[in-house]
Amino acid sequence: MPRSQAGQTVEPEACKLWIHCNSCCALFCDKKHTFFLLACHHVFCERCVKVSAGRTPSDAPIFECSTCRRSVRGRQLTNSMPNHFKQLFHPEPFTIGNDFVETFQRGNHRHFDKYKERKELEMDKLSKDIEVAKSVCQKRFLEAQMLRVERKKLMQRSRYIKAEVANRKAEMHRMAQAYRSRSLTSQSSSSAQCSVRGRPRGRGTATQSSSRRRSKESRESAKRQQITSFIHPPNHSFDL
Asked: Do 49 and 34 touch, CB atoms closer than 8 A?
């Protein structure tokens, strides 16, 4: 937009808002590009029109219209352009009594209105897409929050399981140590008993063993003295 000397933004005149490029719809009031009026009564900016030189250097350039596909002459939109061309952009065409000027401006108005309608539809579609994307993002955000909570629970559960495993390992280690200590204690007690059995016996034990030996020998001699044949009583013969 044009700016005043004080640096403040100046709104363009409403009577110039309809002047636009018939191809890219760039506005003439923005003063960003040079505009041309072609003999086919189409308006284009310098980016959307193709220019070729005339037959001689004095000839006017030839423009290739991208709307009607014709090679025609053209004029740059300036204040120094001929009056009959400049009247086409008159701010109040109804005052000059020229129907062609009104038709020209009305056609450009309709073309620009269609362009604005297309842009409005695109904006509506984009706003709907943004709403859908917003709802999807909100849904994904809630799912991510739920997953974060679930992750925290699983981490706590894993820490609890690791602690339980460590406690069980420690308990098994203590049990193994206790078992080894008991086995060592039993082995030491058994070795002590064996050493006690291997020691020489005292007098009491010797007399007991001798008495047992004597009783055993007497029993064996009694067994040997037993009669194993028939007993014959003594023969006392006498006469009757």
From this structure: no
